[in-house]
Every structure is written in structure tokens, then in C-alpha cells.
Amino acid sequence: MVFTSIPDIELAMRQPLIDEIAGLKRRHNAVVLAHNYMTPDIYHTVADVVGDSLALARLAADTDADVVVMAGVHFMAETAKIVNPTKTVLIPDVEAGCSLADSITPADVRRLKEQYPGVPVVTYVNTSAAVKAESTITCTSSNAVEVVRSLDASRVIFIPDQYLGGWVASQLPDIDLILWEGSCEVHERFTGSQLRQYRRHHPDLQIIAHPECPGDVLDEADYVGSTSGMIKWVGLHQPSQVMMVTECSMANNVSVSYPDIDFIQPCNLCPHMKRITLENIRDALAYSQYVVEVDPVTAGHARTAVERMLSLGTTT
């Protein structure tokens, strides 16, 4: 039995489509990689692997499947292709983009490198392959502190998320981080005053926040971490009430495993993640759409940056 937060009647209506996707995966030796922000009908039924962007990058590199369907946004599909150059990588909707990835271009990175010659560039994976190709190493919110520290440099260019960069800087006060003014349109909508209001109404509330949130939000949080880190924190601490300050679907997905915890949800949805549906996952597999390609030269440079990150090993 699959336990989900989907009402039984809705799950029964979706079951033929779920079964069709399962058959197509077998036929094409395909896997569906699903980010933690996917809706529960994807996350709990057709996903073979779920996780944050670091987990998906690692598992994309390790899969034996011939076809990888990325139930996430376009930069994730590009990353899967970068580490799997011989595999077919599909994105169910080519318009599933990312405001953070769109905030910086390769030309922007080149200008930063000219302005700060010799300074290493740490690039958040929420970027295009072309931006990664201009970078020294990539990072995720799971391992950003570890990645910056690994460079053993006194000054580091950190792009593009200003809030994640600010949080990393607070953890590594001896390193001068040069930041870019990019941000996630979902996380930047949260405010510290909003969280204080929730605490007034819920005195026992534990707040855990993604580091893409503004600094006043992180200051109010009881824990700051990546989506995988937040999930582990809930399992370890088992609070009576918790608020996950991140994209709304994640709390729906995690709550299934913790029925005794009251999840208080300030529901901000990512319009790009929500472009991925069961229907277009089915179509991706049935019609081999939409194939993600990365220019070989760009992919080669980007692969170097990604593999440097992956070589650091598992982190939370």
C-alpha cells in the first residue's frame, strides 16, 4: 500500500495513469527523479528517487537506467544530463524554469572573474549549465558551507543566491564572500514578521527554514538547512508542531511519515515546479519528450564543476 496525503478517492481516480507510467518506465528502462517540491501524487506514486538537488545529482550520476525523467525544473534536468552524457534525459515541461537560475548569465560570471581575478567561483546548482561551466565548483544548500571551506581560500565569489550566500558567510566569518543579488521567488516572500505572528498563535511551534530565505526569516528559525536537512531534523526531533519555511508541497510530502506531528503551513507554491504533472510525465515517457541536450563543450566544463562537488562525499 502507498501511503500519501492524497485523498483515497483522488488516488483511485489517478491510479490508471499511475499504472500507465509504471508500464512505460519498465518498457523504456526509465527512472523518475522527483524533487522534494513535487506534488504528493508524483512524490508518493511514480517517483523512483526523491530528494533535494544534491541527492538527485548524485543519484542521476549512479543510475543504470537508459532514460532519466526529471520531475523538477530545467536546471536539474541539465545537471542530470551533464553527469549522464550518454543517457536520455527528459523534462516533462520545457517551461519549468527557475527565477534564481534566470538571475545570472555566463557573461555576468565572466565579468565577476575579471573584477576579482584568481578568486574561485562557487556556483549554486540552481543555475544553467552555461553558468556552471564558468565556475570552479558547484554547491547545493546541503553542502554550501563544506564546498566553500574546501577551497581553502580567503575570498570566494558565491553565486547567485544572495540569501544562501549571506547564510554561508555567517557560518564562515573568516572568508570574504562576494555575493550576487539573485533570489528565489518562493523563499523571498517569507518574512520574519510573518513567522513571529505564527509563533504568537502557536507557542509550541518549531520553525525550520531553507537558507534561500531572507536573513530576518533565518534569524527567527530554530533550524536552518536544506530540504533534506529539514526532513532529517523533523525525524530526529519529532516536534509537536513544526513549520517548514520552504515550498508548500514539501510539508505535504513529509507529513505522511509523521502523522502525530502538526505541520503548520505558510503555503508558498513554486509555479515552475507545479508545471510538472502526472500527465506530462506520462507524455514524456510515451513520446520521448522533451529531450534535454547540453552543448558538449559547455557540458564538459560544467561537469568538472559538478564532479568536484560530488567528490566531496555525502553531507547533510
* Euclidean distance between termini CA atoms: 30 Å
CATH topology title of the largest domain: Rossmann fold
Sheet with most strands: 4 strands, parallel
CATH architecture of the largest domain: 3-Layer(aba) Sandwich
Mean pLDDT, to the nearest integer, reads 93
The chain-level structural class is alpha/beta
Computed over alpha carbons, the radius of gyration is: 19 Å
The fraction of residues assigned to DSSP E strands is 5-15%
Q: Total number of helical segments?
A: 14
Task: Describe what you observe in this structure.
The protein is α/β, with parallel strands linked by helices and 316 residues long. It has three domains: 8-96 and 274-287, Rossmann fold, CATH 3.40.50.10800; 101-185 and 295-310, Rossmann fold; 187-269, Rossmann fold (3-Layer(aba) Sandwich). The protein contains 14 helices and twelve strands. The strands form three sheets. It has a four-stranded parallel beta sheet, sandwiched between helices. Strands 6-5-7-8 form a four-stranded parallel beta sheet, with helices on both faces. The longest helix is centred in the N-terminal third of the chain and has 21 residues, at 8-28.
Give keywords.
14 helices; Rossmann fold; 43% helix; single chain; 3 domains; 4-stranded parallel β-sheet; 316 residues; 15% strand; alpha/beta
Quickly describe the structure.
The protein is α/β, with parallel strands linked by helices and 316 residues long. Helix content is 43%, strand content 15%. Helix 1 (8-28) runs parallel beside helix 13, helix 3 (53-62) packs parallel to helix 4 (74-83) and helix 4 packs across helix 14 (296-310).
